[in-house]
Amino acid sequence: MIVILKDHPNEKQLNNLKAWLGSMDLAIHESAGVNHRILGLVGDTSKVDIDLIRALDIVEDVKRIQEPFKNANRKFHPLDTRIEVGENAAIGGGGFCVIAGPCSVEGEEQIVSIAKAVKAAGASMLRGGAFKPRTSPYAFQGLREQGLRFLLAAKRETGLPVVTEIMDLSQLPLFEEIDLIQVGARNMQNFEMLKELGRLQKPILLKRGLANTLEELLMSAEYIMAGGNERVILCERGIRTFETYTRNTMDISAIPSLKALTHLPVLADPSHATGRSALVRPMALAAAAAGADGLIIEVHNDPQRALCDGPQSITPKEFEAVMLGVNAILNATRKGEQEQAS
Ligand code: PEP
Ligand code: MN
Questions:
Q1: 303 alpha carbon – ligand 1 mean position (Å)
Q2: Could you tell me the strand order of the sheet in which 37-42 lies?
């Protein structure tokens, strides 16, 4: 349920209203809309008398939210949410953030050199897996703790905030210095993990599951937010369809759909979505044109010898070309948006 307040509400009456709502065990989420302040109410609102609230001097309107996701709902928080990551990066709120790096950390020299290259090309965050979810138990599983240490060495060397995947809650104590924790596609509905991450005050990158709907993705975000951690970033990374030419099918329409449904930032991952390096640039451009808040892209110094996801990894040089293309798209679409608004 949302309560839309009139302009300049009497603060004493507002405090009384909040105290009364609080006494009914409802959590109150206050935010600014384009024109009005909004109180979002989470909890069992079935017994709330809408007409009583609507009749108050300070209230413009009251609406029930039909969707099962509340904290993540754009109706609760009409403006885009901007999430600060580390000391010098942010995702959402109008900027465009590019995260780049190898699928997995393979060595200190490798991750440091890729970090320098992607930073020079304009990336604002570094990715690199230390714990890898692999289909085969015989495939490279990641360098684990050592991989995290190498990733942090690259962070110190370049100043780039780092993102890496957690596969199990037992690994959480190792993630203290990690700036953005990734929940991978395979763990999107690991509800116990989501609840625990909801207790942190650290941003979470939540990737869409291989066979999950947008509503299920938003409900997983809701698990994290319900625990008090509102710093959730969503990521479209392709879904399973009957097509086998690409590793997954990139659901470009998920981007504007999510942007309409939620205020949370939305990233796109053209690497896992396609599984083919030649498709990374066109899909990155398409995602930027569709309104994504940023990208996460796999970049490897020597894709043919990569220990994981080589066929979808691009070289630092190819990454430069992606950045040029993306910037051209952003300039064109933002100019288009301004012209439409004027
Ligand atoms: C990854 O980012 O390397 C990864 C395994 O992603 P996903 O969970 O989307 O497959
Ligand atoms: Mn990968």
A1: 17
A2: 27-32, 37-42, 2-5, 59-63
Closest by CA position to 97, among listed 161, 188, 148, 177? 161
Instruction: Clarify whether residues 285 and 163 are in a common domain.
Output: yes
Question: Is the distance from the beta carbon of residue 103 to the nearest atom of ligand 1 less than 6 Å?
Answer: yes
190 within a domain of the structure (yes/no): yes
Tokens of 265: 């930032």
Distance (angstroms) between ligand 1 centre and the Cα of 64 equals 36
Q: Are residues 102 and 13 in the same domain?
A: no
Strand locations in the chain, DSSP E?
2-5, 27-32, 37-42, 59-63, 83-85, 89-91, 97-101, 125-127, 162-166, 180-183, 204-207, 232-236, 266-268, 294-298
Q: What residues flank ion ligand 2 with Cβ within 5 A?
A: 103, 309
149 and 274 within one domain: yes
Same domain, 129 and 162: yes
Q: How far is the CA of 224 from the centre of ligand 1 (A)?
A: 19
> Using one digit for the tens of pLDDT, what is the confidence trace for 33-63?
777 899 999 988 888 899 999 999 999 999 9
pLDDT in tens, 220-270: 999 999 999 999 999 999 999 999 999 999 999 999 999 999 999 999 999
- pTM, two decimal places: 0.96
In 3D, which of 279, 283, 211 has the Cα closest to residue 245? 279
CB 267 within 8 A of CB 279: no
Q: Are 322 and 271 in contact (CB under 8 A)?
A: no
φ/ψ of 58, rounded to 5, equals -90, 0
Q: What is the CATH number of the domain that holds 228?
A: 3.20.20.70
